[in-house]
Amino acid sequence: MATYLVTGGTGFVASWAIVTLLKRGEKVRTTVRSEEKGKTLKQALSQYTDTTALSFKVADLTDAISWSAAMRDIEFVLHIASPMSADNPDDEAAVMKPAIDGTLNVLKAAVAAHVKHVVMTSSLAAATPPSSETNQAIDESYWTDPTNPELNAYRRSKVLAEQAAWDYMKTQTETAFTTVLPGAIFGPILQPQNTHSVQVIQQMIVRHVPNPKISFEIIDVRDLVDLEIRAVNTPAANGQRYNAISESIAMRDIAKTLKSDVPELASRVRTSQLPDAILRLAAKKAPELNAIVGMLGRKFAHTNQKAIRELDWHPRPAKTTVIDTAKSLYAFNLLS
């Protein structure tokens, strides 16, 4: 029985990591923002697995001191916690400093505690070219230019936080380090508050709107967790980055999949296409749509072959993820 620390335990990905590790018979500690959140999380996850081997520590990404206790007697770390708020992806002050300083606080504590291996959840935002570039096989050697004006504060923070992490971890040799770069994270939720990552599907059904001409390089949360666990237990993954995607799927194809394969939602999904001009016009009145406008006409794609080749990782088809996501939202009564 190994001892794992999963940071940010109440989050979508972290919750799945905790459940997966517990089902494997591992001992898990997670970090939360308060004692009450820890108790609530343990109770919530108990419906999916035995949580006897789950403990928690209160820690804050911006509080370096809180991480010393969290790291005590830990062998492996899945650093998943992120300061991102759904309401402020353009707020430099709210996103940038916590992302960078928080990452370094976790890593410095891990090194000081002699942790064997840390796997950090980064983002494909840290390996994404300008929208004008054409490349159908972007691998892990690609680094986003943080000065690209197309980036909002959140996406820029992902680049700078991962760069800061690699710069620091290269100053030591005792703790192995790996980063995993997921695309759009979909999949079934375990708690009703974990809907931010799957809002695309949720809003597609709730709002009953036509589909912009954009595609997502998606990853199922279960496959992301599987990849991170494989990496943290593979010494050869030290010093490596891994793209975490299954495949690209257009919004219109997501809608078609829901209409054909989730009968209870078929009447609530539109498969019509939204003209680009209408989306651009709407974005002038609703700036939050600019992120979607920026995805129009993208001609690049990432490859997942490194993870498949080196870690024997096999993600499920995108359509399976879409179906399971929608059924999960329906089961939690989050589509009304």
List the helices and strands and how they pair.
Layout: E1 3-6, H1 12-23, E2 27-32, H2 35-45, E3 54-58, H3 66-71, E4 76-79, H4 92-112, E5 117-121, E6 134-138, H5 153-169, E7 176-182, E8 184-186, H6 199-207, E9 215-220, H7 221-232, E10 241-244, E11 247-250, H8 251-261, H9 276-285, H10 290-293, E12 299-302, H11 305-311, H12 318-331
Parallel strand pairs: 1-2, 1-4, 2-3, 4-5, 5-7, 6-12, 7-10, 8-9
Antiparallel strand pairs: 9-11
List keywords for this structure.
single chain, about 325 residues, alpha/beta, Rossmann fold, 7-stranded parallel beta sheet, 3-stranded mixed beta sheet, 12 helices, globular, Epimerase_deHydtase, NAD-dependent epimerase/dehydratase family protein, NAD(P)-bd_dom_sf, oxidoreductase, NAD(P)_dehydrat-like
What does this protein look like?
This protein has 336 residues and is of the alpha/beta class. It has a single domain (3-331), classed as NAD(P)-binding Rossmann-like Domain (Rossmann fold, 3-Layer(aba) Sandwich), CATH 3.40.50. It is 40% helix and 17% strand. The chain has twelve helices and twelve strands. The chain has helices at residues 12-23, 35-45, 66-71, 92-112, 153-169, 199-207, 221-232, 251-261, 276-285, 290-293, 305-311, 318-331; strands spanning 3-6, 27-32, 54-58, 76-79, 117-121, 134-138, 176-182, 184-186, 215-220, 241-244, 247-250, 299-302. The strands form three sheets. It has a seven-stranded parallel beta sheet with strand order 3-2-1-4-5-7-10, sandwiched between helices. Strands 8-9-11 form a three-stranded mixed beta sheet. Helix 1 links the parallel strand 1 (3-6) and strand 2. Helix 1 crosses helix 7, helix 4 runs parallel beside helix 5 (153-169) and helix 8 crosses helix 12. The chain is globular and about 55 Å long. The N and C termini lie far apart (43 Å). The mean pLDDT is 93.
